[in-house]
Design goal:
With 397 residues, the chain is of the alpha+beta class. It is 37% helix and 24% strand. The chain is built from 13 helices and 18 strands. The strands form 5 sheets. Strands 7, 8, 9, 10, 11 and 12 form a 6-stranded antiparallel β-sheet that branches. It has a 4-stranded antiparallel β-sheet with strand order 1-6-2-3, with helices on one face. It has a 4-stranded parallel β-sheet with strand order 14-16-17-18, sandwiched between helices.
Length: 397
């Protein structure tokens, strides 16, 4: 589950990570009041107005701007709230901005120049260990840094049996070229950041930039946080942070009816039971010359109501040119699924305007094929994988 910047910073702060302070606002008037409060709390006269959407690169799309007075706070907030923000990580339509974060200005003058770093905590799936990835090139796209100057990216793997050790935090601060008070602050920052990552059951923390201020404080200026949805039962307060306005509407609807659905950009809709079979089915579609339009696991209870709900989700995508239903009848009988397909098709009537290929294998597969073939509906049945692939290829030709 993705979080907004201000929500991620709330979690970081609760674990002792120093953050750029801010107040979220839904309207330009609220933004002005937030700026006044921040001035009272921090003494800052300038404020940074940040669009709150689930996407990076907000500054490139005009979603992050500096306001030097209250009038600019109001006018900039008015421009950003309600806009469709287009960034390198959004679609061409962009994402609508519903709120902004009014944050303190932390780039103030002092004894030294502010410096920006990149830092992320995530799982290295190749080794099965968490790692801290960091770079002196903060404020930039880490993908660009990795491509153009890979020697400027460092990683520190964490042994799960011992956790982050003090020498590792100090090594990170050393590799970033820090010394004195900034060195001490960075080791403290890294330790608190890793604790936040572990105890919040996150799958990723990305801070870009981590800022060394002109007076050697180390703070998180941004926060991109992804929580592990499977662990939300342990964090009811985090679960309440979900903003479904930022999520794919079809995927939200699928969750509400208990279906595992991920929207893709292909032309063949998939309805499958079991994640492994779903992945194999998507490979099958690619080999047949198509492209999967979705990942959809209906689970082990593929009755008529569930199949109909799955049909309606798939058909919301106007790019779908065919639907492949691939069910292995183990727990659920194939004839029950076949009857569900027939009943759902009849219930939806003219709503189904694309060819449907149904492959049923397993318990009562022969009975299921008879049900499909004798239904009088324009639904094609298949038994073997290759047979289903050939039929998908034929309807796309």
């Amino acid at each position: 589950m993705n979080l907004h910047e201000y929500q991620g910073k709330e979690i970081l702060s609760s674990f002792g990570v120093e953050i750029q302070r801010g107040i979220v606002a839904q309207t330009p008037q609220e933004a002005v009041e937030a700026a006044k409060k921040l001035t009272e709390q921090t003494g800052t006269g300038w404020h940074v107005i940040k669009a709150q959407v689930h996407a990076g690169g907000r500054g490139k799309g005009g979603g992050v701007k500096l306001a030097k007075n209250l009038q600019e706070v109001e006018s900039i907030s008015n421009d950003i709230i309600g806009m469709n923000l287009v960034t390198p990580q959004t679609s061409k339509e962009g994402k609508k901005v519903h709120q902004v974060l009014v944050a303190e200005d932390v780039y103030y003058p002092g004894d030294s120049e502010p410096e920006e770093y990149y830092m992320g905590v995530l799982l290295n799936r190749a080794t099965g260990k968490n790692m801290v990835m960091y770079s002196t090139e903060g404020g930039m796209d880490i993908e660009t840094v990795a491509e153009e100057t890979p020697h400027l990216i460092f990683t520190e793997e964490i042994d799960p049996a011992t956790g982050l050790q003090g020498f590792q935090a100090r090594k990170i601060a050393f590799n970033l070229g820090l010394k004195g008070q900034a060195f001490k602050q960075m080791t403290k920052f890294v330790t608190a950041l890793y604790k936040a990552y572990m105890e919040s059951d996150s799958s990723m923390f990305e801070i870009n930039p981590v800022l060394k201020t002109s007076d050697d404080k180390i703070i998180a200026v941004d926060a991109k946080v992804t929580l592990d949805e499977n662990a939300l039962f342990r964090h009811k307060d985090y679960a309440a942070m979900r903003d479904i306005r930022e999520e794919n509407p079809t995927e939200v609807e699928a969750k509400e009816v208990g279906l595992n659905y991920v929207d893709l950009d292909g032309n063949v809709g998939c309805m499958v039971n079991g994640a492994g079979l779903a992945m194999a089915t998507m490979d099958l579609i690619k080999q047949a010359g198509g492209s999967p339009a979705n990942f959809l696991d209906v689970g082990g209870t593929a009755d008529a109501a569930r199949v109909e709900a799955a049909f309606r989700l798939i058909l919301k995508d106007p790019e779908v040119k065919a639907i492949l239903i691939n069910i292995f009848g183990g727990i659920v009988r194939c004839d029950r699924v076949a009857q569900g397909v027939v009943d759902a098709y009849k219930a939806m009537g003219d709503a189904v305007k694309v060819p449907i290929i149904v492959r049923l294998q397993g318990t009562n597969a022969d009975i299921a094929k008879e049900l499909i073939d004798n239904s009088g509906l324009p639904v094609q049945s298949a038994i073997e994988f290759k047979e289903a692939a050939d039929k998908v290829q034929a309807v796309l030709a």
